[in-house]
Automatic annotation (TrEMBL):
The keyword Secreted applies. Keywords: Secreted. This is Crinkler effector protein N-terminal domain-containing protein. It comes from Aphanomyces stellatus. Its main location: host cell.
């Protein structure tokens, strides 16, 4: 059984690995990966047998090996034939230069895109962890703190209005008895928000609603928002959550529609497809 002293370039901290001489270099890679608990495949490691001057484990060498820039360091401490082929037996490299006490036997180079597991890597891992935790909690809070208006019961709506200091004024109007306006003929094979369907029901509303509202003067306009799922989303500092609402058509004052979608909003219309067979 051999005890090999290894140092990861960029860390400079020696560690030992016990292995049989008749095992191959790839087995040594696996033991190094396991020892350091690396999260990448062992095959990504590059191993070099330190031949030049039988590199000793002293403070100057370790200080140098702790620096970044693995290419320069491996050239300094090893020669061209020191790269250890993963498929070759360890004894091929150790027979001519058997391990000596208090010397570095193997230099380990980890993939460039993966930082060494020294202080810097711990800080980077901490930053990554903080970032992921913040995203997790943000996503969780957003999912928990969104309420849909259509799902609220009357008590929840009352409490929201009370919290925001709002009053609801219900207008009681006499609905004219006019049977001359036909119902909208839904296209059965299309869903409510399908483009052809939308074009037709917007034309229907223009013909039968807007001609009445704008009989004397163009005051109102219709906006098709069937595919805009966020137009009614509301964030108010007085509430500990966001409000979510959907609709199909908005009735707005014509002068305000070019400012924002909500400017001059008068009526929110949600259409429900209902097809009755004769």
């Amino acid at each position: 059984m051999l005890t090999l002293v290894c140092v990861v370039v960029g860390e400079g901290r020696p560690f030992s690995v016990k292995i049989e001489a008749d095992e191959i270099v790839d087995d040594l890679k696996k033991k190094i990966k396991e020892k350091n608990m690396y999260q990448f495949p062992a095959k990504e490691l590059e191993l070099y047998h330190t031949l030049k001057g039988y590199t000793e484990v002293d403070e100057d060498v370790l200080r140098e090996l702790k620096q970044q820039g693995s290419n320069d360091l491996t050239v300094k401490y090893v020669n061209d034939i020191a790269w250890m082929n993963p498929m070759k037996l360890l004894e091929r490299y150790l027979d001519a230069n058997p391990p000596v006490e208090e010397q570095i036997h193997v230099l380990v180079v980890i993939p460039r895109e993966i930082p060494p597991t020294g202080k810097r890597s711990i800080e980077e891992l901490g930053e990554i962890l903080d970032e992921r935790l913040n995203k997790f909690f943000k996503d969780r809070d957003e999912k928990r703190s969104v309420y849909s208006l259509s799902d609220m019961n009357s008590e929840k709506k009352r409490r929201i209005l009370q919290k925001m200091g709002l009053d609801v004024n219900v207008l009681e109007l006499e609905e004219p008895c006019n049977t001359s306006i036909p119902g909208y003929p839904w296209i059965v094979e299309f869903p409510e928000n399908q483009e052809v369907q939308r074009v037709q029901y917007m034309a229907y509303l223009e013909a039968h609603l807007m001609t009445q509202l704008n009989a004397n003067k163009v005051v109102f306009s219709l906006l098709d928002i069937a595919n805009d799922k966020t137009v009614l989303d509301t964030v108010d500092p007085r509430l500990p959550f966001r409000l979510n609402g959907t609709a199909d058509v908005l009735l707005v004052k014509s002068k305000g529609k070019n400012l924002t979608t909500i400017a001059g909003l008068c009526i929110v219309i949600e259409l429900k497809k209902k097809v009755e067979k004769n």
